[in-house]
């Protein structure tokens, strides 16, 4: 067996057997699944305990204006009952009470709500909305326009819904949601960032480990330092890809699982086209409205995800991750070779991390304006391109840009690996030396013999 | 026959010349001591022989041909800075290191079994290295070094970290390896072990070789013509009888008798010494004192530093 292959095998096996790897493999998919489930779940979440609210209206003008909802019941009491309510509203079965002291047209802040427990924004919003609607109506009516009601009804009929349709290469149309595309862009950019840093520092740690364990000299008497470095870098990227594959598969399984679960609970397979009707019919048949709501939201998320070119995006992700990782891994290895223990790493790690951190800022700008100059140039510069490009790809940018970026990245990682290899070769055999950048440059220039 | 030869090896690190036209010749199937103070260039030379680094000029010949990468499997190297992966299991790690030396999995396992039994460390096979004592780790390191049965063995400070029992075990193993035909290059500061083990030595100081040759030859070359005379009798009588070129350097009372260390100047001989004292004291024994390697080391290095 080839020696580099042996090294790759060791690096790979020792890492995937670690507890941390197994934990990450489980946590990752749960996080991704949560990305789909949580928004849908929050959206379906409502306060479902019934609340009784007493209303005392001095003006007697607004009786019945605030409508009851499923969970909010309003009792319109006479002025005479004010004292009793104020003293002891809770034993009378009220959660809060409202007092309207004056004509709201003249005195808009004449309505106050009192309660011991915090009133939610939803409740407050409901009250304000109902009162505002009534007051608007009142003012409109004060103009005494003929056929006013018809006009209003006609106006209310206007309802524009903008659907964003992405055109495929073959002219096919896919409905997509801008929000979801942005979310995907952020997630992919962040993933590259975390993966490169996480696995890059693993390379560095591995090198430092070999130095501090003093095993390095035993090994380089059997293999070339460059073989050892490449074996480590490749072994670790395989670990990363394994992790990623596990994530994709598990996330898919979890989401499919939830989808089936939700559908069977709703007792009807929710079909995208007649979603709304289905939900209505479900609530009519007294299937829990919450589950239906959740199912709808969840299906919309899935549908949005399908609107992206998921396979293409994943492939691009894998490429840019490998490219970005290879670009930085050599540098991390060189840093590891230059230091004796991890605590010294700070001064050399910072310059390596700077472009990565910068990339995240650029990526934030890029997903607001994926076609802009800033986004374009930084997705070409190899040190930032993996992250910035991943932030742009979900927005269907021209293919030549992606390919050009890939080519530049590939050429660059060959260069950085060669560069780092020269520093690594000398550094791994140096102990107890405080290393400066000047020293590193000297190592780089040592003859290759 | 010369097995390993360094010819005019020069190695320069930035402003520091590590090896300055160094030549060594290691005869086949001998134990060769590579000596010198810290920073003399020993480790650099050893790294060049192991092809960890290359010389700026000069060459290394192994068995008459220029050293090439495939020679790695013919060399076993126990570095001074040595260690193992702490989190890895002993057996797995030994197997890995053996396979990096081109041993097949099957051969490696077979030989490991032999050595682990010999050193009685089989119970440690599935333990992590960090659970082992330092001496235990050193044993494993030694096993890994010799496992591929190299023709040339290089030990850099092999005894550091060993307790006396294990050091003795190691010494016997080294002698055993020599008996089996290996050539051994041995670098140490422990001059006692040099005298015990080495056939030849080379002394490097400040990047240059300042002394080399068979160890007995060197000890003879550096002898001070010092005679140790054990006798019974009056020390004053002895000193009275001894005239130039003899001079008593030191006397010691040892149990029932006295030992006198007598410097023998130009023109003196052992016979002359004997005849001048033989009638006055009872002689128990007489022998010439050869300098030990420790003294020679210190003397030669100090001379070359002046």
Helix-strand blueprint:
The complex is a heterodimer of chains A (449) and B (306).
Chain A: H1 3-16, H2 19-44, E1 51-57, E2 72-77, H3 82-88, E3 96-100, E4 111-114, H4 121-142, H5 148-156, E5 164-167, E6 173-176, H6 178-212, H7 216-220, H8 225-265, H9 275-284, H10 289-307, H11 310-338, H12 346-366, H13 373-378, H14 385-392, H15 399-427, H16 437-445
Parallel strand pairs in A: 1-2, 1-3
Antiparallel strand pairs in A: 3-4, 5-6
Chain B: E1 2-13, E2 16-27, E3 31-35, H1 42-49, E4 57-62, E5 65-66, E6 75-78, H2 90-100, H3 105-118, H4 134-146, E7 152-156, H5 164-179, E8 183-187, H6 191-197, E9 200-205, E10 208-214, H7 215-221, E11 226-232, H8 235-241, E12 246-254, E13 257-264, H9 270-277, E14 282-289, H10 293-305
Parallel strand pairs in B: 3-8, 3-9, 6-7, 7-8
Antiparallel strand pairs in B: 1-2, 1-4, 4-5, 9-10, 11-13, 11-14, 12-13
Helix pairs in contact in B: 2-3, 2-4
Strand order of the largest sheet of chain A: 2-1-3-4
Please estimate the helix content of chain B: 25-40%
Number of domains of chain A: 2
Major β-sheet strand ordering of chain B: 6-7-8-3-9-10
What's the structural domain tally of chain B?
2
Largest sheet of chain A: 4 strands, mixed
CATH architecture group name of the largest domain in chain B: 3-Layer(aba) Sandwich
CATH class designation of the largest domain in chain B? Alpha Beta
Largest interface pair:
A-B, 26 and 29 residues
Residues in β-strands, percent of chain A: 5-15%
Look at the helices and sheets of chain A and give the structural class.
Answer: alpha/beta
- Shape type of chain A: elongated
> Might you state the CATH topology name of the largest domain in chain B?
Rossmann fold
CATH superfamily membership of the largest domain in chain B: P-loop containing nucleotide triphosphate hydrolases
- Poorly predicted runs of chain A: 267-287
Mean pLDDT of chain B: 88
Mean pLDDT value of chain A: 80
Largest sheet of chain B: 6 strands, mixed
Assembly classification: heterodimer
